[in-house]
Write a structure and sequence with these properties.
Elements: H1 7-14, H2 20-32, H3 34-51, H4 59-71
């Protein structure tokens, strides 16, 4: 019986989530099915582009977190608050 591979299988292959045996079968399918080859190449390109994305929080968010941390009661350097 011949296994039909889907785009989901190709994505798992691109992200190295397949067994060695399944990888060989997917590679064969990619080589013989032009649609899977096109999708495979697109998936590789998208993965490379996604790996280049760098996200950073806004400066105001970092400042808010640091301000909260400095004043937190468990911080030994926080000013003592008397009631």
């Amino acid at each position: 019986m011949t296994k039909t591979f889907t785009q989901d299988d190709v994505i798992r292959y691109v992200y190295e989530e397949t067994s060695p045996e399944e990888s060989l079968l997917i590679e064969d399918a990619i080589m013989t099915e032009p649609e899977l080859m096109t999708f495979f190449l697109d998936a590789l390109e998208l993965r490379a582009l996604l790996n280049k994305i760098e996200r950073q929080p806004r400066e105001s968010t970092v400042s808010t977190i640091l301000r909260y941390s400095r004043s937190h009661p468990l911080n030994p350097l926080a000013p003592l608050q008397y009631s």
